[in-house]
DNA sequence: GCAAATCGGTTCATTATTTGAACCTACGGT
DNA sequence: ACCGTAGGTTCAAATAATGAACCGATTTGC
């Protein structure tokens, strides 16, 4: 692994639980030498990828990532299109919706929308990592991924996030088969208790899944009628998002050619 | 300069005019050896900072920058607060509004909002680099920056973007003095012909300016009445944004304590 | 109130990595 | 067939990364 990769791996250590980190923490988590980490952070800081605030010695992500994200959006308008699609998906279903993309074997939520239709709703945070086996999004993504990806995901230890989390590979494969048939995957309380999530995959220009679109509702509100409405709206929204971002559905995908 | 900085400088080459670049172009622009650039781009790609699409060999920014931007937003909610502030600023003035931040001596627009009040409006792109001497945003930023920053900006060759661009350092300093008094800077057709922009600075936790908030209108619509409304709304909006992002106005700033 | 631990930051000889000229193959234009 | 340019690869030489030890300042434990 080159020096550049090591430096970038420091950025990968940031997540929702660790929005700020000191030098020692970065050193511990990365397993690298303190001097090495220090020099790398100094270079990352000079480039604006991280910053150290007033007096505080902790590092946090810097403004340059915003500039790059804006440019990425200019090249591939995934977020702006998603926000539009999510807004309508929310309005149609009355529930929280969110979009996530895959990177490095992980699904990360990037944006979400809330409905004001109900007093209670499922709360979301952007940049959260979703479990592949325990969320609707994860299952929707896996259902249309290659066998190697599925095998890799299901052979790893399957975390039991809640008592309801399904961790039996055989039954998970059944869920994937069902999602392949209908185009929509679901998970009931698998990631967070009391949350029933439906999700459909988003495809890239190469017809492979790049992420997922999901609707998350409290278990108590998920009636047969709402399920039907969610599934219909979700399929249309995912197809819309795929097409408007220059993607194509694979031949076997139900509903969209 | 270390290897990491060199690799990150490759990312800095991306801008609105160059959303995608091939290996040769990157090599030429960076002035580095082709093999070096190739290895660095390979590492950046492995980390998800750039990607090469199907068959096409050109590189573009990758999905990892979106994840980092979402985390930066979680730590410092500048964009989300800005979008809210810009929306209202638009509604109040009926004109296009935008927000930009400073990085490395350059002002980059990060987000904007349009009004649907008029049939015509000033068009914006995110991630555009704003001239410091020829835009309201640039002048608003400089007006509250240190003397070294102002001197550095005004001693560099001042590009004449349009026939109306003011390039006389002496008169620009007068404009800065006026902005210091009122808290709002303006530029009439200095960056793009027929665009009249007003702007106010945004301050960080250290009381130094971090960027600017601006309203851009067609010159023909900028009446005395509208100017007055824009200036009032802008001052309130900039103060609001500064405070809601944890910033503080400097002692000498008019209007805000 | 003192000692030990921890923090961010720095040094410098050793070592491993980066570097770059040259080379390869493919492709499009003339 | 020739030339220019593209992306990608090789390997000896040169340069930059590394890490143990060290420093001063806080913080923690007792």
Shape of chain A: globular
What percentage of amino acids of chain A are in beta strands? 15-25%
CATH topology of the largest domain in chain A: Beta-Lactamase
Name the biggest interface: A-B, 55 and 55 residues
Number of domains of chain A: 2
- How many helices of chain A does DSSP assign? 9
Known CATH architecture of the largest domain in chain A = 2-Layer Sandwich
Give start-end ranges of low-pLDDT stretches of chain A: none
Helix content of chain A: 40-55%
CATH superfamily of the largest domain in chain A: GAF domain
- First-to-last CA distance of chain A: 41 Å
| SSE class of chain A | alpha+beta
Radius of gyration of chain A: 20 Å
Q: Note the run of SSEs of chain A as H and E.
A: HEHHEEHHEEEHHHEEEH
Number of strands of chain A: 9
Largest sheet of chain A: 6 strands, antiparallel
Determine the oligomeric state from the structure: homodimer
* CATH class categorisation of the largest domain in chain A: Alpha Beta
Overall mean pLDDT score of chain A?
95
With strands numbered from the N-terminus, the spatial order across the biggest sheet of chain A is 6-5-4-9-8-7
Written account of the structure:
The structure is a homodimer of 257-residue chains. Chain A has helices at residues 3-11, 23-30, 34-46, 64-75, 78-93, 136-143, 147-155, 169-182, 224-244; strands spanning 20-21, 50-52, 59-61, 96-103, 106-113, 129-130, 185-188, 195-203, 209-218. The first copy, chain A, has 257 residues and is α+β, with helices and mostly antiparallel strands. Chain A has two domains: 3-66, Winged helix-like DNA-binding domain superfamily/Winged helix DNA-binding domain (Arc Repressor Mutant, subunit A, Orthogonal Bundle), CATH 1.10.10.10; 77-244, GAF domain (Beta-Lactamase, 2-Layer Sandwich), CATH 3.30.450. Chain A has a six-stranded antiparallel β-sheet, sandwiched between helices. Chain A has a three-stranded antiparallel β-sheet with strand order 1-3-2. In chain A, strand 7 and strand 8 (195-203) form a beta hairpin. In chain A, helix 2 crosses helix 3, helix 5 runs antiparallel to helix 9 and helix 6 (136-143) packs across helix 8. The mean pLDDT of chain A is 95. At the A-B interface, helix 1, helix 3, helix 4 and strand 5 of A face helix 1, helix 3, helix 4 and strand 5 of B. The first copy, chain A, binds a DNA duplex (30 and 30 nucleotides) through helix 3.
